[in-house]
Amino acid sequence: MTTTNPHAPGAVDPHRWPDVARVPSGRLRTAVARLLAARAVPAVGIRLHTGPDAPPAELAEGDAPVLWLRDPDAFHARLAHDGLIGFGESYMAGEWDSPDPVAMLTRFAEHYEELVPKPLQPFRHLTLPRRPASDRNTRDGARRHISHHYDLSNDLFGLFLDRTMTYSSALFTDDDPRDAYGLARAQERKVDRLLDAARVGDGTRLLEIGTGWGELAVRAARRGAQVTSITLSAEQRDLARERVAAEGLSDRVTVDLCDYRDATGSYDSVVSCEMIEAVGERYWPDYFAALDRLVRPGGRVALQSITMEHQLMRASRGSYTWMHKYVFPGGLIPSVTAIREQLAAGTGLRITDRLAFGHDYAETLRLWRDSFTEAAERVRSLGFDDTFRRMWTFYLAYCEAGFRSGIIDVEQITMERAA
């Protein structure tokens, strides 16, 4: 494994993290944000603790989650200036914390519609930042956005993923231990179910869109499939090729840098695991047209996708969020309704099976976050600073809270192309 894009160690770096190092000004807006937060936070069942010292044990161990404001002035200033982007940046700057951030973020997610007073809700869109043109997933944009996240460092991902190096939701059973061994077993089960759904077996010509680090391609090749796997991440391609070669499967698996729009050929099956979230709504027609074009008549497509309720997706489709700015630029989580609309509008594909397992994603993220936290010193030794570490911790906790609250889900969706 190699490290290609290290983050310089140290405190908040104004050159690397300028929007975290700089606290925005604006007394009136900050005062309004302070009043709104003072009303909204207790109203949803979260307790506030303010000051440099940690919350007392009796507060931290209570039933209600705690929001600990280390620097309330900076916290409210960021909230006033950048909304939820500022909320995340404030955590990155160390201005707030919580004894149980997932419980606190879950509570916020469960009551997100109540955080802004009803008379002000129609005006929320006026204060939310809009997506910049640079967020579009053109061919150059998509490659840049994928590199931003997946080419950070294979070593970094190896610190918190299980031995399969699988970076998507596992599929647990009640018998799986909730540890690294159980996670690996649940990841293998998830991959096998996708391959089963796509009817991948001996002699299958399989296209994988979004390689990851090669686990699915290896498991498909072990079944006797001939696998073409495409990715936009050079780091993932290189490690996937190494893993394929180590398994003696190089004659059955090809891993290439290729945009899905440029893929060619005809395949019995196409599998794509948690890649559609990075496509972007503007390019969904291109993505589904590619699936339709690349799978033969009568062939199967198996997707694994994070999903959200259709109305929420429509309401948030143009928003520019903390997640876009720092973790996954250019993405949008689809609804199942949107997927159905895309299939009906321009393809011969139809959905034949669905399985939702959002709570398993919450458990997957919890295990990743625990491993990442335990590896803090090794993360630092790779050259990633404390601001990056807090950013990644917030990202994992934020996503876990989304699944625990039910705001988002994950599904395996099987499709078949008309013969």
TrEMBL record:
Q: Which SUPFAM superfamilies match?
A: S-adenosyl-L-methionine-dependent methyltransferases
Q: Which Pfam families match?
A: CMAS
Q: Which residues form a coiled coil?
A: none
Family from the record: Belongs to the CFA/CMAS family.
Please name the InterPro entries in this protein's record.
CFA/CMAS, CMAS, SAM-dependent_MTases_sf
Lineage, uppermost ranks: Bacteria, Bacillati, Actinomycetota, Actinomycetes, Streptosporangiales
Q: Which CDD domains match?
A: AdoMet_MTases
What is the designated name of this protein? Cyclopropane-fatty-acyl-phospholipid synthase family protein
Which keywords describe this protein according to UniProt? Answer: Lipid metabolism, Methyltransferase, S-adenosyl-L-methionine, Transferase
PANTHER family for the chain: CYCLOPROPANE-FATTY-ACYL-PHOSPHOLIPID SYNTHASE, FATTY ACID C-METHYL TRANSFERASE
